[in-house]
């Protein structure tokens, strides 16, 4: 089975800290995604990547950056954490861009980040 | 624009049948996914439809009408463990926002 692993399940950080959220997938997927999920707002796409060293902005990239130096790893960076970034963060991967059931997403278990 | 609508919450009784609807208006369409997400956990794949009609998989079935931009997930013989959020997602691989566009999810509560 494809596995997407997020490094931390729970994190508490202080306002202004630089925060790194790590995501690793083990099935050679080309695409990786970062979402945040908040009650009533659903999944909101922050950034995604179709290939190593490539990145694309999603719907809400402000206050975030990403890094994809290796195919299996996609990192989300909060440059200066703020309380409005308290959320559940979900990483996902998919085989590549394409149509059909094999091109769905596999999600990590999520990181619940609290910024105080 | 892209728009996917689902009811926010639904409640049903154990043993009953529930239908969760999803309507979509997207710039492209290559298929529709349903995911299940238990509280605090990752979304997991339930079903995929690309042709019109009903796909049955055990207690769960999913229906698609491409001409109406409409899908539903049907859950039969509800169990307490079916309490979860259900996410509808349209596959649009030619789109600019990645492959899948997600609805906000429907939180289903199953009561005894």
Major β-sheet of chain A, in short?
7 strands, mixed
Helical percentage of chain A: under 10%
Helix/strand class of chain A: mainly beta
What count of helical segments of chain A does DSSP give? 0
Globally, the shape of chain A reads globular
The CA-CA distance between the termini of chain A, in Å, is 36 Å
Strand content of chain A: over 45%
Number of helices of chain B: 0
Query: What's the number of extended β-strand segments of chain A?
Result: 11
Main sheet makeup of chain B: 6 strands, mixed
Chain-averaged pLDDT of chain B: 93
Mind telling me the C-alpha Rg of chain A?
Answer: 13 Å
Average predicted confidence as pLDDT of chain A: 94
Percent range for helical residues of chain B? under 10%
What is the first-to-last residue Cα distance of chain B? Answer: 41 Å
Largest interface, chains and sizes: A-B, 28 and 24 residues
Structural class of chain B: mainly beta
Structural Rg of chain B: 14 Å
The gross shape of chain B turns out to be globular
What is the chain-wise order of helices and strands of chain A? EEEEEEEEEEE
Amount of beta strand of chain B? over 45%
What would you note in describing this structure?
The complex is a heterodimer of chains A (116) and B (112). With 116 residues, chain A is mainly beta. Chain A has no helices and eleven strands. Chain A has strands spanning 4-6, 10-13, 19-25, 31-38, 42-49, 56-57, 64-70, 73-78, 87-94, 106-107, 111-115. In chain A, a hairpin with a 6-residue loop joins strand 5 and strand 6 (56-57). Chain A is globular, with a radius of gyration of 13 Å. The N and C termini of chain A lie far apart (36 Å). Chain B has 112 residues and is mainly β. Helix content of chain B is 0%, strand content 56%. Chain B is built from no helices and eleven strands. Chain B has strands spanning 3-5, 9-13, 18-25, 31-37, 44-49, 53-57, 60-65, 70-75, 84-91, 100-102, 106-111. In chain B, strands 2, 4, 5, 9, 10 and 11 form a six-stranded mixed β-sheet that branches. Chain B has a five-stranded antiparallel β-sheet with strand order 1-3-8-7-6, with no helix packed on it. In chain B, a hairpin with a 6-residue loop joins strand 4 and strand 5 (44-49). Chain A binds chain B through residues 4, 31, 33, 40-43, 45, 48, 56, 58-59, 90, 94, 97-101, 103-110, 112, and chain B through 8, 30-31, 33, 40-45, 48, 50, 87, 89, 91, 93, 97-100, 102-105.
């Amino acid at each position: 089975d494809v596995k997407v692993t997020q490094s931390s399940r729970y994190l508490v950080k202080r306002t202004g800290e630089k925060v790194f959220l790590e995501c690793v997938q083990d099935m050679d997927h080309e695409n990786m995604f970062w979402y945040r999920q908040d009650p009533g707002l659903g999944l909101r796409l922050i950034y995604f990547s179709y290939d190593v060293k490539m990145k694309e902005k999603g719907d809400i990239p402000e206050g975030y950056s990403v890094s994809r130096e290796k195919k299996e790893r996609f990192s989300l960076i909060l440059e200066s954490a703020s309380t409005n970034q308290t959320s559940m963060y979900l990483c996902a991967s998919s085989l590549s861009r394409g149509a059909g059931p094999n091109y769905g997403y596999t999600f990590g278990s999520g990181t619940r980040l609290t910024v105080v | 624009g892209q728009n996917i609508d689902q009811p926010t919450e639904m409640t049903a009784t154990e043993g009953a049948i529930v239908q969760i609807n999803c309507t979509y208006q997207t710039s492209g369409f290559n298929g529709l996914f349903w995911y299940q997400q238990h509280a605090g956990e990752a979304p997991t794949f339930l079903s995929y439809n690309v042709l019109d009609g009903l796909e049955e998989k055990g207690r769960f079935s999913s229906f698609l009408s491409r001409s109406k931009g409409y899908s539903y997930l049907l859950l039969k013989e509800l169990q307490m463990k079916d309490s979860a959020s259900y996410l509808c997602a349209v596959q649009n691989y030619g789109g600019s926002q990645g492959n899948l566009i997600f609805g906000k999810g429907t939180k289903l509560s199953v009561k005894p």
